[in-house]
Design a protein that fits this description.
The chain is α+β, with helices and mostly antiparallel strands. The protein is built from 3 helices and 11 strands; from the N terminus they run βααββββββββαββ. The two termini are 15 Å apart.
Length: 167
């Protein structure tokens, strides 16, 4: 089974405006990934809302400890709503299909940040390890967000999908 889904959530103790200021940028993504991973991007790419929608915006390398390439992605955003989130459908080397949705929802105690990923590995061999690696990366991203803004986990789960995802 190569298809899988992941959901990771955090209730952050900050307003959506403050959270978006960080998570709506490539630098913010890298602050979440640090120190284990880093996403490369052209120097002029900063704010997600400035990127084109529906076409690859740039090619990114995902680097382990900032040095070792572990993934390549053609980053494609299909929706960006400042203060509310984005949807990314990028082409990855390791995944046949990839969709990452990040939602920010105003909450009485701050902002709920919810990441949902639906993906399908290119090959069955190693698919479980890939799913585990992505789950660990997103869990790490949320720990970093909670360290920056304060907060607690909300709504995490990882499951193997019973049917192929994303065509």
């Amino acid at each position: 089974m190569t298809a899988w889904r992941l959901q990771v959530g955090s209730l952050l103790h900050a307003a959506p405006e403050d959270v978006w200021e960080r998570v709506g940028t490539v630098d913010g993504v890298n602050l979440e990934l640090a120190p284990w991973l880093r996403l490369t991007a052209p120097r002029d790419v900063r704010r997600l809302e400035d990127l084109p929608l529906g076409t690859p915006a740039f090619r990114a390398w995902v680097l382990l400890v900032g040095l070792v390439p572990v993934e390549v992605a053609e980053v494609t955003l299909v929706a960006v709503e400042p203060l509310h989130g984005y949807v990314e459908r990028s082409r990855l080397v390791t995944q046949r299909a990839w969709e990452h949705e990040r939602r920010l929802v105003r909450h009485a105690r701050g902002t709920l940040v919810l990441d949902r990923v639906a993906a399908a590995a290119r090959r069955d061999a190693g698919a479980r390890r890939q799913r585990a690696a992505f789950a660990a990366a997103f869990a790490h991203r949320h720990r970093r967000l909670r360290a920056a803004f304060g907060g607690e986990p909300a709504g995490d789960r990882t499951v193997a999908a019973p049917t192929p995802l994303l065509g």
